[in-house]
Amino acid sequence: MSPTESLHTDSAFDHDVVIVGGGPAGCAAGVLTARYDLDTVIFDRGRSSIQRCAHLENYLGFPAGIDVETLYGLMHDHAEAAGCEIVSDLVDSLERPDDGRGFVVSVQEGTQVTARRVIAATRYDGEYMRGLDDDAAMFETHEHDGEEHEHFDKGYAESDGTTPVDGLFIASPYGETGYQASMAAGHGTRVGITVVEAVRRGRGYPEPVTNYYDWMRREAELDGEWSDRSRWREYFDDRLGDQHELDEEQLGRLREREIDRRLATYLTEDEVDRRRERGHKRLLEHLDDDIVLEAAREIEAEKPIGGE
User: Is 188 in a helix, a strand, or coil?
Assistant: First the structure.
């Protein structure tokens, strides 16, 4: 896709990204891709390995631990708020269409869909990917009790999730990623960024400026030279260097689009306060109403008489 084109879903496919699995890895990846305006759907039948946990004691941010049902609800709410569609269905198979572009995703109950890219974020056996494995590198054979058994190769993907299959990424918590839920979420985030950067390359961003981050800053940091758009142009050109094949028109459009994206990440103090309040209220939606009411009564009872 040319860098002169605006960001939009590739109309040749139903979705930009299909994610198989709605646990910590899949939802973390989906938040990143959806926030980059990629049409993202997560297929989740609720079989995430995290659901076998009685109570999560070590997921950062929950000092007393967090029950799996509440965490699952928070993860799915976050993914949907970012723009993901979550479908309760099981992916049966992934296949290449006749033209070799993208993937055909067949599901157990719903309608077959197509996607430009797929993120595998589930730990079940990987059989649904077998149709993509022309050279049999995706699976490995082990002998146990005199019988041969075939398993998905946990080292098949690179650490950033890329695989030998163009457009297929693995975010499953295998190998060095470990099996802790927080590690799965971190790996999903890494793979989500990998996908976004792959999209940026496809849209014409030369390698020095494909890197992507997703975080907000305070507008007050835009002081001095960084409040001047021309300074951002210099910064972009310094990073890009001379080793690219963009003409002046393409370079100008790409540069201004990237500057717009960067500047949009700076928030006014009023916006910071508004988002803080919105975030707290959203969390309340996932808490037990009786516990919230009990806490409110305790707060009210602790207030001094007359408001002093």
Answer: helix
Question: Are 245 and 298 found together in one domain?
Answer: no
Own/partner contacts of 284-292, CB < 8 Å, gap of 24 or more, are 285/77, 286/70, 286/73, 286/74, 286/77, 287/70
Supply the pTM of this predicted model. 0.91
- One domain for residues 184 and 223: no
For residue 169, give the H/E element and its range.
strand 168-170
Rounded Cα gap, residues 92 and 109, in angstroms: 9
195, 19 in Cβ contact below 8 A? no
Cite the DSSP H helix spans in 151-268.
181-202, 229-240, 248-263
Return the amino acid letter for 212: Y
CB 21 within 8 A of CB 48: yes
Element (H, E) at 79: helix 68-82
What distance in Å separates the CA atoms of residue 83 and residue 35, rounded to the nearest whole number? Answer: 7
Looking at 202, 222, 237, the residue that finishes a domain is: 202
In a domain, 33, yes or no: yes
* pLDDT value of residue 178: 67
In a shared domain, residues 243 and 170: no
Enclosing domain of residue 42: 15-142+150-202
Alpha-carbon distance 31 to 49, whole Å?
Answer: 20
Residue with tokens 């646990």: 23
Any idea which residue has 């007393």 for tokens?
64
Question: Are 138 and 253 in a shared domain?
Answer: no
* Residue 304 DSSP class: P
pLDDT digits (tens, 9 = 90+) for 154-193: 888 999 999 999 999 999 876 666 678 999 999 999 999 9
**Angle, helix 269-284 to helix 68-82, in steps of 10 degrees:** 140
116 and 168 housed in the same domain? yes
Q: In percent, how much of the chain has pLDDT > 90?
A: 72
Q: Residues 82, 182: one domain? A: yes
Residues in the chain: 308
> Dihedral (C-alpha) 139, 143, 146, 148: value to the nearest 10 degrees?
0
